[in-house]
Amino acid sequence: MNITGPREHGFGDAMGRFWIPASQHPVNQTRSYARFGYYDPIKERPNYHLLIGHKVEKLILSQGMSVQGVVFHERDHPGENFTVKVTRETILAAGAVHTPQILQLSGIGPKAVLKAAGVEVRMDLPGVGQNFQDHPQAKVLCNCE
After folding, report:
1. How distant, in Å, are the alpha carbons of 16, 17, 18, 86, 137 from that of 140?
2. Per-residue CA distances from 119 to 29, 115, 129 (Å)
3. Which residues of 7-45 are buried (b: 16+ CB within 10 A; e: fewer)?
4. pLDDT tens for residues 90-142?
5. Whole domain around residue 46: which residue ranges?
6. What is the biggest distance separating any 2 CA atoms in the chain, rounded to whole angstroms?
7. What is the enclosing helix (H) or strand (E) of 68?
């Protein structure tokens, strides 16, 4: 079943399905997302590098389970991996779906899942990748004249 809808619901012809932005900037009421809230304030830092069009495959972990590096590739060239060495802290923030995926590909997650996927178990952590819940909503709006 294909439910049609307008390309932009803000044009006043919001019939069918459409997205309703739920994140607004508290001052100017424009759509707020990671660029304004995170990237813009720190983009000039010399130790911050944003790689667009790349995908992290896994973390390289030491025997003591600290992150020593990150393996990634360009989106269009998945066979050509690069590794960035890590000397300080590592923040893994790849979203609700990709964060547990990267952890599991790195060997952190439920032992049964990792073994079934052929991934070496580095840390049996049953909660990784579990209890994901989306928040779908259905609304009916009508104009009555």
Report:
1. 10, 10, 12, 50, 10
2. 45, 6, 15
3. eebeeeeeeeeeeeeeeeeeeeeeebeeeeeeeeeeeee
4. 889 888 889 999 999 999 999 999 999 999 999 999 999 998 876 777 777 66
5. 24-124
6. 69
7. strand 67-74
Q: What does each C-alpha distance from 126 to 58, 70, 102, 104, 111 come to in angstroms?
A: 18, 23, 15, 10, 7
Query: Which CATH number covers residue 65?
Result: 3.50.50.60
Question: Does residue 48 lie in a domain region?
Answer: yes
* Residue 70 belongs to a domain: yes
Q: Tokens 């790195």 map to which residue?
A: 106
Kindly state the average pLDDT of the residues 6-20: 68
Please tell me whether residue 16 adopts helix, strand or coil conformation: coil
Is 13 within the bounds of a domain? no
Categorize the per-residue pLDDT at 144 as very low, low, confident or very high, splitting at 50, 70 and 90: confident
Instruction: Please give the Cα distance from 80 to 54 (Å, whole number).
Output: 11
Number of structural domains (the chain) is 1
Give the whole-angstrom CA distance, residue 99 versus residue 103. Answer: 6
Instruction: Please check whether residue 43 lies inside any domain of the structure.
Output: yes
